[in-house]
Write a structure and sequence with these properties.
The structure is a single chain. By secondary structure, the chain is an alpha/beta fold. The protein folds into 2 domains: 133 residues, Alpha-Beta Complex (Aspartate Aminotransferase, domain 1); 256 residues, 3-Layer(aba) Sandwich (Aspartate Aminotransferase, domain 2), CATH 3.40.640. The protein contains 14 helices and 15 strands. A 7-stranded mixed sheet has the order 4-10-9-8-7-5-6, with helices on both faces. A 4-stranded mixed sheet has the order 1-2-3-13. The chain has a 4-stranded antiparallel sheet with strand order 11-12-15-14, with no helix packed on it. Helix 4 runs parallel beside helix 11, helix 7 packs parallel to helix 8 and helix 13 packs across helix 14. The two termini are 32 Å apart. It binds pyridoxal-5'-phosphate. Pyridoxal-5'-phosphate binds next to helix 5.
Length: 413
């Protein structure tokens, strides 16, 4: 088997025999568009991996990072140390959190933040004298990143296969099935630490919550003393037309996991907004508890500077309101696609987030290629869904063009 003349870069989630001689290199970005190495201009229908909320190529983010790096690039935040950016960012995030008195644990990304939320949930119950409450409950089709814990709790089974024994004490319930959740809690709540839930499932195919589902889920959590963790790695920072999907759906989670849109991807930052019930035992005067967790880059100064500048852009340009304004435009543009015989379902209506599910998974490669050839970059979500999650600076015309390209590529496939 020859490996000559191929890349040394091992791509994530990739079949390398296919990819190693077929890499597509993106060299530049501006607003809702990127350019590949062959000079093709492409509409970024997915905001890269769901993250580039404010759009590409913003100089002021680069300048904020440059400015911070010239003062101090980063410094440790273990024990009592900090730099100004993580302190400021945490204040900003606590002020916009969808529940009062949040404390903020910062990480380098979403999988890291899932680790934090899961470990903190278990540690909380342990400290509360209920160490048997360890089980982490998630939903079928859920995706919570691919670290050890995220791999163990995902509802996308193909991401769990072949890795041997994973983290024990996990359980899955069918998506949007409140009765199944009620039954599980009724029989085993004394073993359950937390229910971890994407308000809108993303990687599993863009599945909005059934009407009333999240209300019921959070009520069941309260009744059975189970922590509710909202994984807002995709839905946070405006994607649903509100700052957080928790606001949009009127829920107050015990913890909220974020990443991606907090910097719009300009630097790697994630974290967890932690509610008072959870943080208080660790913060109260006289407590001897320590949450034995922390990452070298928790609160990285230059990365946090990018996050602060990103929040400034979101606020100054009222981009979250813009998402709410574009939501009905996206819905009406996508509607005709649902009529195509090769389209099984169009799921949309929650901000700038949609999935176009094809009737036949075999069509997907040709459709993706057809979109690329016609200047639109999208990707496959499980099992045969095209991802729609463009930067918030996309225009109504951009969305119309994207949809007509989808239609042409589907017809031609
Ligand atoms: N949670 C959700 C809902 C995600 O969509 C993702 C990534 O796509 C993650 C967690 C993991 O984030 P990261 O890839 O930054 O580790």
């Amino acid at each position: 088997m020859s490996t000559a003349a191929t890349t040394a870069f091992w791509h994530g989630q990739a079949h390398m025999p296919t990819v190693k001689r077929a890499e597509r290199v993106i060299v530049r970005g501006e607003g809702a568009f990127v350019w590949d190495a062959d000079g093709n201009r492409l509409f970024d229908a997915t905001a890269s991996l769901w993250y580039c909320n404010i759009g590409h190529g913003r100089r002021e983010i680069a300048e904020a990072v440059f400015e911070q790096m010239t003062r101090i690039e980063a410094y440790a935040t273990f024990q009592q140390y900090a730099t100004p950016p993580p302190l400021e960012l945490s204040e900003r995030l606590a002020a916009i959190a969808p529940f009062p008195s949040a404390k903020v644990f910062l990480t380098s990304g979403g999988s890291d933040a899932i680790d934090v939320a899961a470990k903190l949930a278990r540690r909380y119950w342990n400290a509360a004298g209920q160490p048997e409450k360890q089980t982490l409950v998630t939903r079928t089709r859920a995706y919570h990143g691919l670290h050890g814990i995220g791999t163990s709790i995902t509802g996308l089974d193909f991401n769990r296969e072949g890795f041997g024994r994973l983290v024990p004490d996990t359980a899955r319930v069918p998506t949007n099935d409140a009765e199944a959740l009620a039954e599980l809690f009724a029989s085993r709540a004394d073993e359950i630490a937390a229910f971890i839930c994407e308000p809108v499932i993303g990687t599993g195919g863009v599945i909005p919550p059934a009407p009333g589902y999240l209300d019921t889920a959070i009520r069941l959590c309260r009744e059975h003393d189970v922590l509710f963790v909202a994984d807002e790695v995709i839905t946070g920072f405006g994607r649903t037309g509100r700052m957080f999907a928790s606001e949009r759906f009127g829920i107050e989670p015990d913890m909220l996991v974020f990443a991606k849109g907090v910097t719009s991807g300009y630097m790697p930052v994630g974290g967890v907004l932690v509610g008072e019930r959870i943080w208080d035992p660790f913060w109260a005067d006289g407590s001897d508890l320590i949450f034995r967790h922390g990452l070298t880059y928790s609160g990285h100064a230059s990365a946090c500077a990018a996050a602060i500048a990103n929040l400034d852009v979101l606020e100054r340009e009222r981009l979250v309101d813009r998402v709410a304004e574009l939501e009905p435009v996206l819905v009406s543009e996508l509607a005709p696609l649902a009529e195509l015989p090769r389209v099984a379902e169009v799921r949309c209506g929650v901000g700038l987030l949609a999935g176009v599910e094809l009737a036949d998974a075999a069509l997907v490669p040709a459709v993706l290629e057809g979109c690329h050839e016609r200047g639109v970059l999208t990707r496959l979500l499980a099992p045969s869904t095209l991802q729609v999650s463009p930067p918030f600076v996309a225009t109504g015309d951009d969305l119309a063009t994207m949809v007509s390209v989808f239609g042409e590529a589907i017809e031609a496939a």
